[in-house]
Design brief:
The protein is of the alpha/beta class. About 40% of the residues lie in helices and about 15% in strands. The strands form two sheets. The protein has a seven-stranded parallel beta sheet, sandwiched between helices. It has a six-stranded parallel beta sheet with strand order 10-9-8-11-12-13, sandwiched between helices.
């Protein structure tokens, strides 16, 4: 891939997008000239110590139809005069500009679907909007040279719907040993007992309102790392339930610093609500993050996770019911034998589920596109 110019496009801030940072670092390590294009947000900071270029687009609108229209127009203008060989559009919200560029330039076009966009909750419940995105998706599936996604279940469903090959590149951390050294972060110093950790976006349908609601029935504290649309709602809920001394909001932590928090947790939480087809077929980044931190977790009994837990018993599957989640969490309280068994499974699993092995799939996709 020496000298191949690749542009990858996203609509988010670049700092927290570990999948794209990992992808761009890897492609650059293979000799490609890589540029990651994202968006300027108020809190945007630099991506440091990486071997790819980055560019951020400033938008007047920040959400909704006008944002998508403005961003794609600005992205189109930015890419128009660029000399590139491969354009990777991440999700449908950057694919409109990608489709236009592909029509007018002799380039290869790859689409990386981080979720099944027309079936996420905020799109699926608005049927007119969903139909528009389904039309965009159909055109993408017809014209893109290659499409890949984050998990096997989404790939199977897309393949059934569009009768084309959908590849899989899962977002796994690099393999490394868990360090027990280092002082406890200041934000955790006032937590004296075992705690459940949730890391990721504080958005709807992530099961967070329910987790706060059942806190009175479980003995753990709760640590939330991340930010999102429902943070203020969750803070109000914590106040209403009188849980200020048991629920701890840490805020956004840079990806490279997360390990210093994760290693102090007892249980990882990964129980989204099955409110949409995209969520039901999901494979969240935090699943592999918990595994690589050797942190046992409670996990949705969804198809993707079911298969993974059969391979390595890194956590406990739970149904979408309060009483079952309460029961599982209480059974794990001070159950060192079960926790150690799952930790050992995590230790074995990360030897298989790691970026060093998964990136082979990514290289094959890009190499095949260049060679055909």
């Amino acid at each position: 891939m020496q000298g191949v110019k690749i542009y990858c496009t996203v609509t988010n801030d670049l700092v927290g997008d570990r999948r794209m940072i990992r992808t761009c670092d890897f492609l650059a390590s293979q000799g490609a000239d890589v540029t990651l294009v994202g968006r300027v947000l108020n809190e945007s900071g630099p991506i440091e110590n990486h071997n790819f270029n980055q560019h951020r687009i400033q938008c007047f609108f920040t959400r909704g139809k006008l944002f998508y229209l403005e961003y794609n127009l600005r992205l189109l203008l930015f890419l128009w005069n660029k000399n590139l060989h491969i354009l990777c559009s991440v999700d449908l919200d950057t694919a409109i500009a990608g489709r236009v560029i592909r029509r007018f330039k002799a380039i290869k076009w790859i689409v990386d679907s981080h979720e099944w966009f027309p079936f996420v909750p905020e799109v699926e419940r608005r049927k007119v909007i969903q139909k528009i995105w389904l039309l965009v998706e159909r055109s993408v599936m017809i014209e893109a040279d290659e499409v890949y996604t984050v998990g096997n279940e989404i790939a199977k469903s897309m393949k059934d719907k569009y009768a084309r090959e959908i590849h899989v590149v899962r977002n796994m951390p690099e393999e490394k040993k868990v360090s027990s050294h280092g002082a406890k972060p200041v934000a955790l110093e006032n937590i004296s007992k075992e705690f459940i950790l949730y890391q990721g976006a504080l958005n709807e349908a992530r099961g967070l309102e329910r987790l706060i609601r059942i806190m009175e029935y479980i003995p753990y504290d709760l640590v939330l790392i991340g930010d999102g649309d429902i943070k203020e709602k969750l803070e109000r809920q914590v106040n209403e339930f009188g849980l200020n001394n048991r629920v701890h909001f840490i805020g956004f932590i840079r990806p490279e610093e997360l390990g210093s928090y994760t290693k102090w947790a007892t249980i990882g939480y990964n129980v989204s609500e099955p409110v949409s087809e995209s969520y039901r077929l999901s494979l969240n980044n935090k699943f592999f993050d918990y595994v690589h931190a050797e942190l046992p977790s409670v996990i949705n009994d969804f198809p993707e996770y079911r298969q993974l837990v059969q391979e390595f018993s890194v956590g406990t599957l739970v149904k979408d019911e309060d009483h079952e989640i309460i029961k599982v969490l209480n059974n794990l309280w001070d159950n060192s034998h079960e926790l150690n068994r799952m930790k050992h499974s995590c230790s074995e699993a990360k030897k298989v589920w790691n970026w060093e092995k998964e990136s082979v799939n990514l290289l094959k996709i890009y190499s095949d596109v260049l060679n055909h």
